[in-house]
Write a structure and sequence with these properties.
299 residues, alpha+beta, 6-stranded mixed β-sheet, 19% strand, globular
Length: 299
């Protein structure tokens, strides 16, 4: 059964530097939905809402809002405040499992689509390890970020693990390692930390795990993003940055040093999906055991 989603304020400009409207965002997500929905399906979804577009800032909303259509399902999970201090609470998370649910999120001013790494049937068992690469704020830093992404790829290859890369669509790069759903978040965090610190030792000045920007030299390979309840802007998400760049999957050979996040507009993302389908689809079918590689890193 299909449901109608009515779009209001279609002419509202969400990206003032580019004149991109809510209606254009709605149209893009409607067209990319078949490729995107499998990456959101069965995952608790966090709404990041930009009511006034980019200039007005955003706020996160985990609890399904009052007035959400009853055909969008929810699942309840306990969450803790950032840092783990304070009381936990039960939250009814929306599940975005259809084109119409995705479009309703756009109607509610979600620009990018953020969901858990794990699914509702095994919430403690993530589907992947994430390496979130954040370049320094200096000229030509993205080229360095690309070089570091290839270092991560090579290190994972050496451990016998296949990995998949996408532009974050913002300033960085995401490298995902799909795994069987036997490992815990504690395992994925430890694995990402050990490999990141190994790369930091091997490539000082290029790779860092330093959290504080003022102490940082090189590209942050952030292992801290592996944790229960963490979210990632999904593949094919439009990001709230000038030019409305899309988090776009690439083959490793396409990640050359001249690639830039803004190369991948909504039109480019749609063209790539039309020509090649969803090249990120293998991330959804992790058959790789993390245990042997983790044991090797522990030494």
């Amino acid at each position: 059964m299909t449901h109608e989603v009515k779009l209001s304020s279609a002419d509202r400009v969400l990206f003032p530097d580019d004149g991109i409207t809510k209606g254009e965002l709605f149209d893009y997500y409607g067209r990319v939905a078949d490729a995107l929905i499998p990456h959101l399906k069965d995952r608790p979804f966090t709404m990041k809402r930009w009511r006034e577009g980019l200039p007005g800032g955003s706020f996160f909303q985990k609890q399904a809002p009052k007035g959400m259509p009853d055909w969008i399902e929810t699942r309840q999970f306990r969450t803790w405040p950032r840092g783990g201090k304070g009381e936990s609470r039960l939250v009814d998370f929306p599940l975005v499992e259809s084109r119409e649910a995705l479009l309703w999120m756009v109607q509610m001013h979600c620009i990018d689509m953020n969901a858990w790494y794990s699914r509702v049937d095994k919430p403690e068992r993530p589907d992947w390890v994430l390496f979130d690469l954040d370049p320094p704020e200096e000229p030509d830093a993205y080229a360095l970020c690309i070089r570091v992404a290839h270092l991560v790829h090579g290190a994972l290859d050496a451990l016998g693990l296949a990995s998949y890369v996408k532009t974050s669509g913002a300033d960085g790069i995401h490298v995902l390692v799909p795994i069987t759903r036997r490992s815990t978040y504690t395992d994925t965090y430890e694995f990402a930390e050990l490999l990141s610190r190994q790369l930091e030792r091997e490539h000082p000045g290029e790779v860092t795990t330093e959290w504080l920007k003022k102490k940082r030299s090189g590209v942050l390979v952030d292992h801290r993003q592996n944790g229960h309840g963490k979210t990632i802007a999904s593949v094919y998400s439009v990001r709230p940055k000038p030019g409305a760049p899309v988090s776009t999957p690439l083959d490793w050979h396409e990640l050359t040093e001249d690639v830039r996040p803004r190369d991948f507009t909504m039109d480019v993302a749609l063209e790539r999906v039309a020509e090649r389908g969803d090249i990120f689809e293998p991330v959804l079918h992790g058959k790789q055991a993390l245990g042997p590689a983790l044991k090797e890193l522990r030494g």
